Amino acid sequence: MLEKALSGSKTYWAWIFALLVLIGIGAGFYLYQLNEGLVVTGLNRDVSWGLYIAQFTFLVGVAASAVMVVLPYYLHDYKAFGKLTLLGEFLAIPACIMCMLFIFVDMGRPDRIVYVFMHPSPNSVMFWDTLVLSGYLGLNAVIGWTMLNAERKDTAPPRWVKPLIYLSIPWAVSIHTVTAFLYQGLPGRGFWMTAIMAPRFLASAFAAGPSFLILMVLLVRKFTKFDPGNAALRKLGQIVTYAMFVSVFFFLMEVFTVYYSNIPEHKHHFWFLFVGGPLYLKGAMWLFVALAVIGLAIMVNPATRNNITTLAVGAGCIFTASWLEKGLGLVIGGFTPNPLGEYTTYTPTFPEIAIAVMVWCIGFLILTVLYKVATAVKEEKALS
Amino acid sequence: MDRGKRNFLKIAGLTGVGAYVGLKGVQAIGNKGTKAKKKLALVIDTRKCKGDCPDCITACHREHNVAERHNPNFKGPGPKAAQGIKWIWVSTFAGAFHEQIHERTGKRKEPVVVLCNHCDDPPCTRVCPTGATWKRKEDGIVTIDMHRCIGCRFCMAACPYGSRSFNFSDPRRSLKAVKPGFPTRTTGVVEKCNFCVERLGEGLLPACVTACTKKAMHFGDLNDKNSPASKALMGVHSITRKPILGTGPEVYYVL
Predict the structure, then answer these.
(1) Would you call B86 helix, strand, or coil by DSSP?
(2) What is the DSSP string of B124-164?
């Protein structure tokens, strides 16, 4: 089926070419990083994880959010999502791959990656994260490909797929839970030491992922004849609305706990993110607040949620807000101040950003190819 | 036996076995790293050490070929100072003990020397995905295998004392002189104080203890009542960093 990705319009090839150029530039910077070490990044002794690990954390959420279309369709037989599930599963695949790549580019000794498998350490959450992430990637690849193949051949999907689909539902929850455990189980990091870290992760993931899916569906609809339908889009809008309210609610619970208890070690991180930090970070955090409010205002109002244009704006706001909070603030805020109460400013460097862009572009490339194949098969079906 | 009953017994049996294995696993993880034969500890007498001389730091960093700053010839974009390496350094009293001070702590506000605490139950070894860092059963030293470390820096996030450093660049390029006998490191691995395990093997004391001209550092086995560390803790008031976290630090500060 992959050959379907080899024929496309001029726009398609221009897009592929643009992605390849950005990947090439990023790869150049990655070689630079490989040669010099992580000294080329803004990371330091105090903020020892930054942009890369934050992207990883955010993208685990995007991967997990496929469950938001799989669950209604397969467990509740919600027919309107029939055409959408494949796009959800195919979104999870590049998201998982990007997660792995972000871990890889963050490693000080990537040449030793096999040690993770040679010396499995069940006491490390990272060991479990590797397991669940690769498992989830495998599940979605097998399910998505098998379902698409069955659709193309006009046959019923094989019976063994059903259990895999059911398995993928709790599995999706597990990947983001385990990712939250990377953070919430660490003593002495007040910002992350919260039992609702995993629920918070899931809520913001179920807001950001479906928001992204809304935007992707609109793009697919614009460039192909495949249309999952307005009903599906509006239902996604509803899911985003609920998830974002829960996400904001959880965030406010953190704010209450931290400020009412008045414990300095916990307050300092919030102070740094919103008041005391570098301008880019403060700006990002206040933009997160603004976009969350605007996004929710658009989504909660049925008139604007059901209007596809404003729905797209709302989805864009919520996706960006979630990215700012989780793909930037969460990691940097947790490391600042450091365990000695000192403030070290972390600012991603240009090489670091270029490498992050490279990984995102690899993800978009895989997503484009998968969506191209999927929509080509579906267009074929629609014609015959 | 009818089918329903058999299935029930099967499930009940499996659940029981699963619960037992799970419980044992959790216990094994929980117990890991405690109960060392020796309990090596460092006692720092803050009545003598005012954190105002560099002797222990210089001795330690020379002994272990520590690249305090990253390659000075590198013209890259990163933050220069914060990417350096520290095994032992001076912190403000408030930085080391911010949960134990108040406005009128008075003279105890003087800077203190801080380093890896070689915890009884170290969070850093718990999180390592390759087993590259562990607590030695024989003496309780928290050590790192530089050849197995993959540089994921999870241990740096887990350490509640900020005691671990990462080689952001090639340390060999920033060392002015290399002391033979102790291996230099490569780019991309984590390192920290090792309680001078290499010197202990030769019957020597840690370099910092030997270098301290004020005789403010005492090292030894706390399981041995007659060790210098045990004696230094006798009849005085001492504290450790963040005891509330349950890590059990083995670096003590006499006030």
Answers:
(1) coil
(2) HHHH-TTS-EEE-TTT--EEE-TTT-----HHHHH-TT---
Chain B residues in contact with A265 (beta carbon < 8 A) = 98-99
d(CA B227, nearest CA chain A) in Å: 30
Number of domains within chain A: 1
Better-predicted residue by pLDDT, A180 or B99: A180
Does residue B32 surpass a pLDDT of 70? no
Residue B3 reports pLDDT greater than 70: no
Q: Which of A106-120, B47-61, B64-78, B164-178 has the lowest mean pLDDT?
A: B64-78
Element (H, E) at B89: strand B88-91
Take residue B133 and report the two structure tokens written for it. Answer: 């860092």
Find the mean pLDDT for residues A233-255.
97
Taking each helix axis from N to C end, the angle separating A308-324 and A230-261, rounded to the nearest 10 degrees, works out to: 30
Q: What is the rounded average pLDDT of the residues A59-69? A: 95
Q: What is the mean pLDDT of residues B239-244?
A: 95
Cα–Cα nearest to B123, from A371, A193, A272: A193
Please check whether residue A109 touches B, CB under 8 A.
Answer: yes
Q: Is B190 on the interface with A (CB under 8 A)?
A: yes
SS3 B219: strand
Q: Higher pLDDT residue, B132 or A153?
A: B132
Q: At what angle do helices A350-383 and A10-36 cross, to 10 degrees?
A: 150
How many whole angstroms separate alpha carbon A31 and alpha carbon A14? 26
Position A179 pLDDT exceeds 80: yes
A177 closest CA partner among A95, A57, A52:
A57
Look at residue A22 and tell me if it is in a domain.
Answer: yes
B118 phi-psi bin (left φ>0, alpha ψ -120 to 50, beta other): left
Give the pLDDT score at B154: 97
Cα separation, A319 vs A240, whole angstroms: 10
- Under 8 Å between Cβ of B142 and B159: no
Predicted ipTM of the assembly: 0.93
In-domain check, residue A167:
yes
Residues of A in contact with B187 (CB under 8 A): 36-37, 108
Alpha-carbon Rg for chain A in angstroms: 21
Residue A359 included in any domain? yes
Q: Name the minimum distance, in Å, from the CA of A258 to any CA of chain B.
A: 16
Residue A173 has a pLDDT of 96
Please say whether the beta carbons of B111 and B91 come within 8 A. yes
Residue A204 lies in a domain: no
In contact, A161 and A146? CB cutoff 8 Å: yes
H or E segment and range at residue B220: strand B217-221
Asked if residue A362 lies in contact with residue A101, where contact means CB atoms within 8 angstroms, the answer is yes
User: Tokens 């592929």 belong to which residue?
Assistant: A16
Residue A66: band (very low, low, confident or very high) from pLDDT cuts 50, 70, 90: very high
Size of interface A-B (CB pairs under 8 A): 173
Min Cα separation B120/chain A (Å): 14
Q: In terms of residue numbers, what domain contains A63?
A: 2-198+210-383
* Residue tagged 């997503």 (tokens): A367
pLDDT at B33 over 50: no
Closest CA to A331 of A178, A197, A175: A197
- What mean pLDDT, rounded, does chain A reach? 95
